[in-house]
Amino acid sequence: MRRCHLLPMVLSLPVIVSIAALATRGTNAASSHAVSASHSTTASDARLVRTIDAYVKPMVDRGDLSGQLLVARNGTIVLERCYGFANRELGIPVTPESRFNIASVTKPMTTVLAIKLMEQKSIGYHDSIARWIPDFPKGDSIRVEQLLRHRSGIPHELVPDTLATRPRTAAEMVEIAKHEPLDFPPGSRSSYSSGGFTVLARILEIASGMDYPSLIERAIFMPLGMTHSRSANGIELLPNRVSVYMKGSHGIDNAPYQDFSGIVGAGSVWSTARDLHRFVQAIVTGALGASARQSLVRDRVLDFNGRTSGFTAFAEWDSTTGVEVIFAGNLLTGATEAIRHGIPPRCVGTRASSCSRTAYASCCRCETACCGRTDGSSSPRRTARSFRPATTESCAACRAPTVASRGSTGPRTGRCIPRRG
Predict the structure, then answer these.
(1) N or C: which end of the chain has fewer CB within 10 A?
(2) Is the pTM higher than 0.70?
(3) Where among 326, 347, 368 does a domain terminate?
(4) Residue 122 belongs to some domain of the structure
(5) What are the tens digits of pLDDT across the range 178-205?
(6) Residues 247 and 340 in one domain
């Protein structure tokens, strides 16, 4: 196991209340070879490192984990691990500099950009799409606020995965969106929409006079020292870009190719766990402004997550415990959910609460989390929180193998609960 050196951290969606306040002012945000580092300055940190390593080891030994894991407490990194391969065919391992697509963790960055432009009075919270894209169908009835809150009615997917194989600009995606019928009248309900954030990205481009990659570079990446982050298409050269994989019926396969520039502003950013740590700390310390913190920290918790193709990413921070857990991965297995729900409670010296008569599993292919209870009910909050592998079952959603744990009554097969994000 090789050591990697920690770099100094540069510290320079939404609950929308703070953004609304801005609007008011304006009109009147694995493999066995693992690279590792820990910054254990206390006995407590050393125990935490041992606990996490022991928890993750079975997933690493099975080859279910590939990516970067970072754990910090009160802003200080206490553990950093790199597992698996950046490129399996060439045998290139994941390193701290490997860049992963972070999927919907891009959206909080777009939210920060929108807040910054609102603070500059370049755009308004209640602006209609028509102000910026006059020929957008029903643009007079769709507001910036609705794009941020997933209430615009613009479809989540503007281009099917099978056609998302070439670079596209925000302007191109808006032209596609113009020909897609709305899923519902704007403002009438909420439905998760990457398409809405892509339209928002185009509005930010028009308002700022810069394309989205340049805007996010200048407004977020450069000021925060996020030197390994970029909004990039699949054609341009991106050093240390990782390949992406999925578990199939005969082992690990290449994931179907996608160019993520078609979800610009929603899932187009490539980054590292270290850079995401910089972003999280800039939010929670107020370095990105009070409005960004108030909008992105909900109930004293920051919780970003996303998945696209075989990429998964999440960033979580709890103000009560000061614990921050970040993961970026390129192999679609249930291990991601196991880390996400299993590590935070271990960071505060507890095991995740769970029903003693529940068996837990996580699908190796579709990454649904399965929970079988004796009363036939299921709970997504209980699913992968106590991931202790013991037996192999099959996923009720895609029939792929799952790795399950034994509850007090032995293994059970439960319903699959789709992973959110």
Answers:
(1) N
(2) yes
(3) 347
(4) yes
(5) 999 999 999 999 999 999 999 999 999 9
(6) yes
